[in-house]
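Exercise: predict the fold of this chain.
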Amino acid sequence: MIQIISGKKGQGKTKYLLEQVNNAVKDVSGHIVYLDKNTKHMYELNNKIRLISVPSYPVTNCDEFLGFISGILSQDSDIQEAYLDSFLTIADISESDEIENAIEKLERMSEQFQVKFVLSVSKSENDLPESIRKYITISL
């Protein structure tokens, strides 16, 4: 399952994502990871959530990012949910076709490994490709 929180920069996507991930701890029996562009929100996350600062690793394009996600999932089969804050930035995505490709691959990973992915995307709903709008749960 993939869920997208969309909206332009500064509209509260991260605040909503943090609230959602901290609430998920109560209901999820497995592990939760939170990937971000820095460790700024470290103290806002429940200590049961693993924070991963993507720029700390040599990830330089979308394919490497997807490989990075695969590596995380391969090392911990108990991951049930993954929250990807600033998705376009941490995945190094700038083109619409890259977004579609990344979402398609995340959807396959989600189905294969039974992991829920929740992404914050700094674009308005209308600026996203039609094919991925079905994943939008919140549009700010």
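Check your answer against the key: The mean pLDDT is 94.
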